[in-house]
Amino acid sequence: xxxxxxxxxxxxxxxxxxxxxxxxxxxxxxxxxxxxxxxxxxxxxxxxxxxxxxxxxxxxxxxxxxxxxxxxxxxxxxxxxxxxxxxxxxxxxxxxxxxxxxxxxxxxxxxxxxxxxxxxxxxxxxxxxxxxxxxxxxxxxxxxxxxxxxxxxxxxxxxxxxxxxxxxxxxxxx
Length: 174
What we know:
alpha+beta, Nucleoside Triphosphate Pyrophosphohydrolase, three-stranded antiparallel β-sheet, 3 helices, disordered N terminus
């Protein structure tokens, strides 16, 4: 793929672990600038705008939903008076018709506000009614989602998925 020559065409996403000063950056196209942090705690001094769930089944497949943009992971905005964890459970129930267990924050993406990414296990699949924002749900291998992803930030999803896969594999080896 030919890269645009206009330097304003790109922004950078810094990736760091909490407590480390990382100067490495990943170039993103047509996206906001995010600082990705691998951490189990939300970034300090940032309001939380949205939460997302990477929900795995026992076979290591990811629970995904299809909405008007295409295939994506369940998630959405935190409503007033709601904790990020409450929003996470609500969004998974509304979009994927599922309940989750063992939810753990593992990454955040911050600009003016922060988005939180959680890993979780499927607790129960509820009857799917294709209401709210989704018309399908299914399990797929995380790499399959990368090819079908319909959300607005594919480079961000690539990094979020890679870390979730790494952590899930480490959990399975215990």
